[in-house]
C-alpha cells in the first residue's frame, strides 16, 4: 500500500543523481519534520507521519506563531518516512534541486480522526517539536480553475499558550535542529551521477607522502577550551559537531575494514553490520578517523543509545561519522593540512552518503565557531571541536584541536537539601563532591525540578536524614546520607569550587535487569535477623559523612541470601575497622579472641608445610555476628574447604592505571569476555568496588594451586596480546600508565579477592557487585552500587551469578 503512495515521489526523482532516500514501507508512527528548502524559491515543507508515509505540504512563507497569520500550504506528494532525517543538497537539475535542512522535528498528535479530518478539509493537530508546539490547523481551500489540480490549504496556529504573535520564529531560529547549520552553510551540491564521479587524487595534494599503509596510527586528541577560538590572520579554524560516542579508527584493506577503538581494541565483530559498509567505498586502502554513534529521533548522538545497541547486538543501528582521512591508496596524508584532507574525505564518501547511510560525513563551518557552538548548546549537543585548518594530523593531545563543551554537566553527590513549603517541599539541593574521603560542599541547585520529581526527591531524602552536616555546608541545609547522585548542568564553577547557575538534570540511578528465574535458597531466617546486635550503632565510619556501624549490619542482613552462596565454605579474610578510622583498619586472616562461636576454622598448611589455621563462614549466624566486630569487607579464597588444594574459581582483576576512565575499563572487560570464551571458559563479571572490574571464571577443581596459577599467567599473557596498547601484565604503576593491568596473582594459594557483594571500606561504602554483561555497559559509575542502593536492586533483579557453579569448565593449561 505504501509503495503505491510513493510512486509519484519516486517518479519525480533519479536516485542515481540525488541522495534523497528512495524509501520503503513504514510502520505506524507519529513523527513530524519541517524542512527549510531553498529550491526555485525559499520555502518550508511540513511533513506528518501517517499510514507509513509522510503527508506533505509546501508552506512558502513558513509557519507563524501568530494565530492571525494564515499561511498558504500546498499539498504535495507523499514522502517516505526516511525523509524525516534527510538534510543535504539536491543536485541541480533534479526535482527540487537545492539545499535542504531539518528546520524542526519531533512528534505530532491528531485532535480528532486524522483520516476523516483530512477528507473533510479541516485538520487539527498538536506538535511537540524543538521550535513548534501546541495546536495547529490545516484548512483546505475551495479549488479554483487556475489552481490546475493543486490542493491548497491554509496553515495557522491555534490560540493557546504556545502562541506568540510578537515572535518571528523563522528569523529567531533559522538553524537546523539536526546539525545546527543554517541553510546557506550547507556544502556545495553533490555532483550528479555518483557512479561516474572522479576518484580522489591524494598524490596531487601538497604534503602527501608515498608510503605503505601503517598498521597503527596514534589518535590526535583535542585539548579542552572554554570557548571557540577566534579566527585571526595567523590561524584559520574549522568547527565540527562534537559527538557522544566511541572514537574509532577504520583501517580499510582488501574490501574489508578493521574498526579499532581509542584504547586499541579491535571491535570489528562487535560493531554489527558497520564494517561491511566500508567495502563499498571506492578505494583499496584507507585509514579514516571518526566516531561511532547511535542518533536519537532528533538526529542527536546519545551515548546511552549506543550502550543499548552494543549490549543487545549492534546490527544496523550504528552510524560512523567520518571526520578525517589519514591514508588513501598508497599515500600517507597526515602531513597534509586539514583543510585539504577533508575535501578528499568528502569526495571518497560522496557516492555512499544518504539519510540512512551507515557512514556519514562530519561537515564543518569555517571562520568563527561561536554561532555553531551556541546552536549546539541550544539543541542539546555535546559541544563542538575546533581544528586548525592548516594543521597536520599529530598523534596525542595538542592545541591545534580544541574541544569546547556546551554548558558543562557533571555528577555530584546530594548531601542535603533546604526545605521550602512554598516551593513544594524542596528549596534547593545541597551538592557535594568526595575529596580525600570527605564529602565537600559544592553549592546549591534549586532549578530543574518539576512537581513530580520534587515529590519523589523529597520522599527519598526525608528517609535519608542524618544529623551531621557535610564539610562546608550552610546551616540551613538538612543533611542526608550521601548515597544519591545527580546530574547537574552548570555554566562554570567559582575559584573555590562552587557550582554557578546549576540546573538539576536528573538522578543518576542504576537499574539491573532481572536474572533468569531461580529458586533462591533462604540462608537468613527471621530469627537470625532478630538476633543482630551491635554496640555503638550510631558510630560513623570513615569520617563525618560516612555510614554508621548499624548501616553496615543492616546491609549485610539485606544481601545475605545473595552473598552467602558465594562465601560459605571458603577460607576468608576479614577487613575490620572497629573504631571507624581508616588508619585503624586491619586484615584478620586467623582466629581471634572473642570471635563468634559460629565462625569456623579451616586447618591447612603453608607452602613450606607449616600448619596454619584460617577462618571460614559456615552459616548465617556467624556471618551476621561479624558486624559487631567492625567487619566491613570479606575477602575469600577461590576454593572451598572441602577441596582446599584445588581452586574452583580463578579471577582476572582489571586494574586501571593513570588516565584510564571507567568507560575504558568496561570496554576492556567486554573485549576480554570474548577472548576468554574463545579459550573455552565462561567468564562472569563484577565491579571491584573501586575503579576496576573482576572477571571471575568458574572451573572444575582438578588442578592444584601452582598449576592453576601458571595457567592463568599464560592466559593473562594471551589476553594482553589481544590489545597490546590497552593491557599489561607487569606490576608497577609506571608500567600501567594509560594501561589496564591484568592481575592474575590472586590465583596463587592463600591469595584472596574481595567477595561478591562485599562492601569496600570507603565513605560511601560501594559494593563489589556481580552484574550481567548487559548491565555492566549501562553503569555510569560503580560507586552507584553501594550499601544504600544495592539491597533494593537485588530484591527486584536477583543474583546474576546464581548459575555460576553450573558454568564450570576445565581450565585450559
Topology (elements, then pairings):
Elements: H1 2-11, E1 31-38, E2 42-50, E3 53-59, E4 71-80, E5 88-90, E6 98-110, H2 114-120, E7 122-129, E8 133-140, E9 151-157, H3 169-172, E10 209-210, E11 220-224, E12 237-241, E13 246-253, E14 256-261, H4 274-277, E15 285-293, H5 303-312, E16 319-328, E17 331-332, H6 338-349, E18 359-361, E19 365-366, H7 370-378, E20 383-388, E21 396-405, E22 408-420, E23 425-435, E24 438-445, H8 451-463, E25 478-479, E26 485-490, E27 492-493, E28 499-500, E29 503-507, H9 526-530, H10 549-563, E30 571-576, E31 586-588, E32 600-605, E33 611-616, H11 620-625, E34 631-636, E35 649-656, H12 662-678, E36 684-687, E37 693-698, H13 705-721, E38 727-728, E39 740-743, E40 753-754, E41 770-771, H14 773-776, H15 790-797
Parallel strand pairs: 11-21, 16-18, 38-39
Antiparallel strand pairs: 1-2, 1-6, 2-3, 3-4, 4-9, 5-6, 6-7, 7-8, 8-9, 10-17, 12-19, 12-20, 13-14, 13-15, 15-16, 16-17, 20-21, 22-23, 22-25, 22-26, 23-24, 26-29, 27-28, 30-31, 30-33, 30-34, 32-33, 34-40, 35-37, 35-39, 36-37, 36-41
Looking at how many chains there are and whether they match, the oligomeric state comes to: single chain
User: What is the CA–CA distance across the termini?
Assistant: 61 Å
What is the 3D shape? globular
User: What's the main sheet like?
Assistant: 8 strands, antiparallel, barrel
CATH fold node name of the largest domain: D-amino Acid Aminotransferase, Chain A, domain 1
Q: Give the radius of gyration.
A: 31 Å
Give the CATH class of the largest domain: Alpha Beta
CATH 4th-level superfamily of the largest domain: DNA ligase/mRNA capping enzyme
Tell me the domain tally: 5
- Strand content is 25-35%
Low-confidence stretches: 188-196
- Structural class estimated from helices and strands: alpha+beta
DSSP helix count? 15
Specify the helix fraction band.
10-25%
Strand order of the largest sheet: 1-2-3-4-9-8-7-6
User: What CATH architecture label of the largest domain applies?
Assistant: 2-Layer Sandwich
Amino acid at each position: 500500500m505504501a509503495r503505491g503512495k510513493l510512486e509519484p515521489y519516486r517518479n519525480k526523482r533519479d536516485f542515481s543523481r540525488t541522495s534523497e532516500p528512495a524509501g520503503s514501507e513504514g510502520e505506524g508512527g507519529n513523527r513530524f519534520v519541517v524542512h527549510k528548502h531553498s529550491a526555485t524559491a525559499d520555502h518550508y515543507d511540513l511533513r506528518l507521519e501517517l499510514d507509513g508515509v509522510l503527508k506533505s505540504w509546501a508552506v512558502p512563507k513558513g509557519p507563524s506563531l501568530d494565530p492571525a497569520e494564515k499561511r498558504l500550504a500546498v499539498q504535495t506528494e507523499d514522502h517516505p518516512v526516511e525523509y524525516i532525517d534527510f538534510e543535504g543538497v539536491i543536485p541541480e537539475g533534479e526535482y527540487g534541486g537545492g539545499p535542504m535542512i531539518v528546520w524542526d522535528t519531533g512528534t505530532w498528535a491528531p485532535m480528532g480522526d486524522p483520516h476523516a479530518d483530512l477528507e473533510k478539509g479541516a485538520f487539527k493537530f498538536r506538535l511537540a517539536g524543538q521550535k513548534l508546539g501546541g495546536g495547529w490547523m490545516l484548512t483546505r481551500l475551495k479549488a479554483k480553475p487556475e489552481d490546475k489540480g493543486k490542493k491548497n490549504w491554509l496553515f495557522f496556529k491555534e490560540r493557546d499558550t504556545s502562541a506568540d504573535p510578537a515572535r518571528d520564529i523563522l528569523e529567531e531560529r533559522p538553524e537546523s535542529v539536526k546539525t545546527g547549520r543554517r541553510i546557506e552553510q550547507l556544502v556545495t551540491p553533490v555532483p550528479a551521477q555518483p557512479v561516474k564521479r572522479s576518484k580522489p587524487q591524494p598524490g596531487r595534494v601538497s604534503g602527501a607522502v608515498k608510503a605503505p599503509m601503517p598498521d597503527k596510527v596514534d589518535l590526535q586528541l583535542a585539548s579542552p577550551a572554554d570557548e571557540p577560538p577566534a579566527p585571526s590572520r595567523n590561524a584559520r579554524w574549522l568547527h565540527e559537531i562534537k559527538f557522544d560516542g566511541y572514537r574509532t579508527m577504520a583501517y580499510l584493506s582488501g574490501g574489508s575494514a578493521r574498526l579499532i577503538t581509542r584504547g586499541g581494541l579491535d571491535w570489528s565483530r562487535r560493531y554489527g553490520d558497520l564494517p561491511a559498509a566500508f567495502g563499498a567505498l571506492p578505494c583499496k586502502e584507507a585509514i579514516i578517523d571518526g566516531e561511532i554513534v547511535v542518533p536519537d529521533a532528533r538526529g542527536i548522538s546519545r551515548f546511552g543509545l549506543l550502550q543499548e545497541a552494543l549490549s543487545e547486538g549492534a546490527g544496523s543501528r550504528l552510524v560512523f561519522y567520518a571526520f578525517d582521512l589519514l591514508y588513501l591508496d598508497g599515500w600517507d596524508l597526515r602531513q597534509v593540512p586539514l583543510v585539504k584532507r577533508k575535501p578528499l574525505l568528502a569526495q571518497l564518501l560522496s557516492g555512499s552518503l544518504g539519510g540512512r547511510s551507515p557512514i556519514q560525513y562530519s561537515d564543518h563551518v569555517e571562520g568563527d565557531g561561536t554561532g555553531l557552538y551556541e546552536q549546539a548548546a541550544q539543541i542539546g549537543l555535546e559541544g563542538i571541536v575546533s581544528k586548525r585548518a592548516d594543521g597536520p594530523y599529530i598523534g596525542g593531545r595538542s592545541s591545534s584541536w580544541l574541544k569546547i563543551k556546551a554548558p558543562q554537566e557533571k555528577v555530584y553527590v546530594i548531601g542535603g537539601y533546604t526545605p521550602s513549603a512554598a516551593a513544594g517541599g524542596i528549596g534547593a539541593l545541597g551538592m557535594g563532591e568526595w575529596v580525600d574521603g570527605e564529602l565537600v560542599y559544592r553549592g546549591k541547585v534549586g532549578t530543574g525540578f518539576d512537581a513530580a520529581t520534587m515529590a519523589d526527591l523529597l520522599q527519598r531524602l526525608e528517609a535519608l536524614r542524618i544529623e551531621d552536616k557535610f564539610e562546608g555546608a550552610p546551616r540551613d541545609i538538612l543533611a542526608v546520607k550521601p548515597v544519591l547522585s545527580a546530574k547537574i548542568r552548570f555554566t562554570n564553577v567559582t575559584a573555590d569550587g562552587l557550582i554557578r547557575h546549576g540546573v538539576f538534570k536528573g538522578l543518576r540511578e542504576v537499574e539491573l535487569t532481572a536474572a533468569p528465574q531461580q529458586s533462591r535458597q533462604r540462608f537468613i531466617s527471621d530469627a537470625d535477623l532478630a538476633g543482630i546486635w551491635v554496640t555503638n550503632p550510631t558510630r560513623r565510619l570513615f569520617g563525618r559523612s560516612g555510614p554508621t556501624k548499624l548501616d553496615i549490619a543492616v546491609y549485610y542482613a539485606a544481601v545475605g541470601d545473595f552473598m552467602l552462596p558465594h562465601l560459605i565454605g571458603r577460607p576468608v579474610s576479614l577487613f575490620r575497622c572497629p573504631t571507624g578510622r581508616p588508619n585503624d583498619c586491619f586484615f584478620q586472616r586467623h582466629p581471634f579472641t572473642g570471635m563468634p562461636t559460629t565462625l569456623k576454622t579451616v586447618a591447612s598448611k603453608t607452602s613450606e608445610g607449616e600448619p596454619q589455621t584460617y577462618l571460614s563462614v559456615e552459616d548465617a549466624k556467624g556471618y551476621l555476628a561479624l558486624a559487631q566486630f567492625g567487619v566491613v569487607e570479606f575477602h575469600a579464597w577461590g576454593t572451598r574447604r572441602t577441596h582446599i588444594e584445588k581452586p574452583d574459581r580463578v579471577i582476572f582483576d582489571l586494574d586501571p592505571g593513570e588516565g584510564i576512565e571507567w568507560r575504558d575499563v568496561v570496554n576492556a572487560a567486554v573485549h576480554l569476555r570474548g577472548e576468554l570464551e574463545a579459550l573455552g571458559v565462561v567468564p562472569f563479571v563484577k565491579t571491584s568496588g573501586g575503579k576496576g572490574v573482576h572477571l571471575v571464571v568458574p572451573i572444575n577443581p582438578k588442578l592444584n594451586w601452582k598449576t592453576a596459577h601458571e595457567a592463568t599467567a599464560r592466559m593473562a599473557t594471551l589476553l594482553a596480546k589481544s590489545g597490546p596498547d590497552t593491557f599489561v601484565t607487569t606490576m608497577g604503576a609506571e608500567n600501567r600508565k594509560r594501561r589496564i593491568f591484568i592481575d592474575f596473582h590472586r590465583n596463587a594459594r592463600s591469595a584472596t579477592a574481595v567477595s561478591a557483594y562485599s562492601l569496600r571500606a570507603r565513605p560511601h561504602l560501594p559494593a563489589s557487585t556481580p552484574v550481567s554483561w548487559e548491565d555492566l555497559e549501562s553503569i555510569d559509575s560503580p560507586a552507584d552500587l553501594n550499601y544504600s542502593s544495592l539491597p533494593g536492586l537485588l530484591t527486584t533483579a536477583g543474583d546474576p551469578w546464581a548459575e555460576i557453579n553450573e558454568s564450570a569448565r576445565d581450565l585450559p593449561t
